[in-house]
């Protein structure tokens, strides 16, 4: 056991003995999020960094939690491989542990799966300072209750992630983006129709600019499949070099739609079935930005619209939550979360099992 890991374990054990909360932190790139911890003694995970093993032929990489995400993706790219779920950046310095703990995925999420779908094994330090390992480096090692994937999206509240094994995939042989000028209703209808066909859909984004709605659809796959889809789907092909940068801007919320959020408005995340129709937002709320083939609707709204957004999402069979509060660490971050009683009870029992003293990233609800 090396020095960095031993120091991490000792810090957790000491905090547990004193009942002192710990604020687990990597690069701090997601501190804006409502689930990010606000209090506690800082536990910096960045010293616990490095590639443990990488087998390109096996499509598996094992990394320590403090490893910079950019470093991992550079390593994979050199072998023609990637993290297909496109973890968002939101800023420089993000770490692999933070990527897994937050469980956030990018534009391709609806087509390729989420972060948790690529976690094969994980090593954590629980709230009592015990070093635990779950899963392995192959899918067949996953048996029983899949604790490895449970850590994805737990925001560190179930354990301090120290090491993770991830499944990676090769880059797609071909990629292109199609552009369609259409209304939100038309975009949703098109996406639903295409979703039932054998098309290499990878990501989509509908946004309205100056009253004009535009749908962008990214195709990825074999050359023949992408070319055939272009002929079938129509639209205007976008092959300019800057298109890839636009998708990265969408991933990291750097598009003008995000940047132009009015003061006093929160960024809401509405997760609904892909088949959900256009949501009739409250008066004064601008049209959403729609991702994940209709399954993710980003909405900018003032705090007084919160109840209406919760109701709209629930009626559509989904949920609504504040992603970025209206003000820095605003109180609406807590009010803007649908807490399902059954899930909250499960969460509480899990926390009791993994962190009985409640010292790991306390305060916020788990995502």
Give a written overview of the molecule.
With 367 residues, the protein is α+β, with helices and mostly antiparallel strands. The protein folds into two domains: 3-171 and 346-354, Uridine Diphospho-n-acetylenolpyruvylglucosamine Reductase, domain 3, CATH 3.30.465.10; 174-335, no CATH class. Helices cover 28% and strands 25% of the residues. The chain contains twelve helices and 17 strands. The strands form four sheets. An eight-stranded antiparallel β-sheet has the order 13-10-12-11-15-16-14-17. A hairpin with a 2-residue loop joins strand 11 and strand 12.
CATH topology of the largest domain: Uridine Diphospho-n-acetylenolpyruvylglucosamine Reductase, domain 3
What number of domains? 2
Radius of gyration over C-alpha positions, nearest whole angstrom: 21 Å
Shape: globular
Distance N terminus to C terminus? 32 Å
Count of DSSP H/I helices = 12
Mean pLDDT: 92
What's the β-strand tally? 17
Low-confidence stretches: none
Percent of residues in beta strands: 25-35%
């Amino acid at each position: 056991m090396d020095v960095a890991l031993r120091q991490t374990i000792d810090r957790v054990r000491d905090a547990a003995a004193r009942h002192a909360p710990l604020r687990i932190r990597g690069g701090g790139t997601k501190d804006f999020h409502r689930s990010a911890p606000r209090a506690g003694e800082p536990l910096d995970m960045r010293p616990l960094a490095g590639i443990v093993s990488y087998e390109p032929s096996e499509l598996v990489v094992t990394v320590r939690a403090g490893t910079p995400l950019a470093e991992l993706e550079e390593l994979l790219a050199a072998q023609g491989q990637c993290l297909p779920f496109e973890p968002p950046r939101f800023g420089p310095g993000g770490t692999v542990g933070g990527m897994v703990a937050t469980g956030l995925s990018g534009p391709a999420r609806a087509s390729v799966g989420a972060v948790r779908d690529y976690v094969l094994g994980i090593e954590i330090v629980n709230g009592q300072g015990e070093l635990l390992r779950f899963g392995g480096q192959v899918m067949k090692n996953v048996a029983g209750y899949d604790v490895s994937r449970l850590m994805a999206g737990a925001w560190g509240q179930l354990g301090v992630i120290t090491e993770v094994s991830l499944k990676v995939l090769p880059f797609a042989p071909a990629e292109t983006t199609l552009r369609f000028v259409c209304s939100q209703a038309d975009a949703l209808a098109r996406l639903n129709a295409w979703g039932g066909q054998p098309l290499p859909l990878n990501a989509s984004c509908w946004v309205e600019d100056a009253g004009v709605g535009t749908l962008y659809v990214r195709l990825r796959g074999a050359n023949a499949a992408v070319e055939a889809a272009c002929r079938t789907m129509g639209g205007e092909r976008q092959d300019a070099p800057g298109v890839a940068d636009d998708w990265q801007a969408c991933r990291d919320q750097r598009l003008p739609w995000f940047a132009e959020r009015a003061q006093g408005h929160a960024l809401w995340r509405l997760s609904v079935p892909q088949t959900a129709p256009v949501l009739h937002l409250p008066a004064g709320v601008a049209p959403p930005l729609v991702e994940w083939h209709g399954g993710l609707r980003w909405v900018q709204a003032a705090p007084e619209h919160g109840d209406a957004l919760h109701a709209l999402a629930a009626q559509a069979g989904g949920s609504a939550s504040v992603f970025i509060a209206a003000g820095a660490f605003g109180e609406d971050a807590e009010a803007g979360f649908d807490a399902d009683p059954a899930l909250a009870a499960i969460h509480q029992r899990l926390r009791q099992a993994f962190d009985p003293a409640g010292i790991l990233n306390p305060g916020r609800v788990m995502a």
